[in-house]
Amino acid sequence: MRQLDHYIRNSVLLAMAVIIGVLVMLDLVFSLLDQMADTDESYTIPNVISFVLLTTPTVIYEMIPFAALGGALVGLGVLASHSELVIIQSAGVSVSRITFSVLKPTLLVMLVGLLLGEYVSPPLEQLAHSNKAIQQSGTTSINPEQGTWRKINDEFIHINAIAPGGRELFGVSRYKINEERQMLLASFAESATYIEESSESYWELNNIRESLFENRVVTSKTYSQIDWRVDLSPELLSVLLIDPDEQSISGLYQFANYFKDQGLDSGPYYMAFWKKLLQPLSTMVLVILAISFVFGPLREATMGARVFFALGVGLIFTILQRLMEPASLLYGFSPLLAVLTPIFLCAAVGLYFLRKVH
Q1: Whose C-alpha in 50, 93, 123, 260 is 20 to 30 A from the C-alpha of 30?
Q2: Which domain range does residue 53 map to?
Q3: DSSP class of residue 41?
Q4: Are 19 and 70 a contacting pair, CB within 8 Å?
Q5: 0.90 exceeded by the pTM?
Q6: Given its phi and psi angles, is residue 216 left (phi above 0), alpha (psi -120 to 50 degrees) or beta?
Q7: φ and ψ at residue 163, rounded to 5 degrees
Q8: Other C-beta atoms lying within 10 Å of the C-beta of residue 41
Q9: Do residue 13 and residue 70 come from a single domain?
Q10: Of 217, 224, 114, 130, nearest to 168 (Cα)?
Q11: In this predicted model, what pLDDT tens digit does every residue of 126-174 receive, in sequence order?
């Protein structure tokens, strides 16, 4: 039985590796073309290549469930095409036992994906987006197409670029208004560094150009350095570097609770948290669905038909996820329920066909 497990494992893992390799290569080509459209004097071709390579672990992580689906479908499909599954079943091996043999390598893939999404992908994604933002608009005046906006008390703040870790900022614009929505101050600093001392912490702004608006008179000043005391932690800024779907599970949970406590919109972060936390379950369910179809409707299908089916199932699963996410945020039902709905539907279909085989 151990030899059978090894044989099925090698067939499935090889198919998974081939499929994820093909998917990643296609994504690399399209990502390169997409990023090359943003090139200019500061964001050059080597920067584009660096950006694409740094974001590749995120692509691999996102492709893992669909690679597992396609790997199980193609790997078992090859065995079925050579009548090896019939021989295995004739030897007294049940469908449940074959399913278990396929799920064992799937658990390894799930573990690799979990480690990749938690420890490898998020910091590299932060580094890639930070480098791009710095290269494109790090120390120039405000660029509305880059960076992030924040409102703190009576100030509107725009940051062109945030260094990984959030302790260094580039291109900090500040706009202070009064209760009548009149401009009191407009300021631009080329950079800012987070200073952490035992008594207090603050930001040190560098090379500041400031304009004061008083009694219809504009006064312009320049400073080499200013201490900026504001409730803006590096931890929060590091989260703003990348989208919720590209952050770690632990970071998503932490900042979802933070945004909730601050009365801010925490829905996208809870949604991304449950989606990433339950990705291993999604992977397992898609593999079970693939197994059920190999033993059922696709037992005599060609390899092209199986690949087409894998693409179709992956597309339908993705569409369901994309539909449930905004529906949850719009109608206010649980993000957990939104993430679980496509998983339960796929599990129900897979278990139905497996029961018909039995």
Answers
A1: 123
A2: 2-136+278-357
A3: S
A4: yes
A5: no
A6: left
A7: -70, 155
A8: 6
A9: yes
A10: 130
A11: 889 888 888 876 555 666 566 788 877 788 898 888 887 788 998 899 9
Tokens 């972060």 found at: 269
Residue 233 three-state SS: coil
For the chain, what's the residue count?
A: 358
Q: Are residues 330 and 210 in the same domain?
A: no
Of the chain, the end-to-end C-alpha distance in Å amounts to 21
To which residue do tokens 């970071």 refer? 251
For 80-96, give the DSSP string.
Answer: HHTTHHHHHHHTT--HH
Please classify residue 216 by burial: count the beta carbons closer than 10 Å to its beta carbon, then call 0-12 exposed, 13-18 middle and 19+ buried.
exposed
102-125 CB burial, b ≥16 within 10 A, e <16: bbebbeebbeebbebbbebbbbbb
Name the band, by pLDDT with cuts 50, 70 and 90, for residue 28. Answer: very high
Whole-number Å distance between alpha carbons of 309 and 266: 36
Residue ending a domain, choose from 240, 265, 288:
240
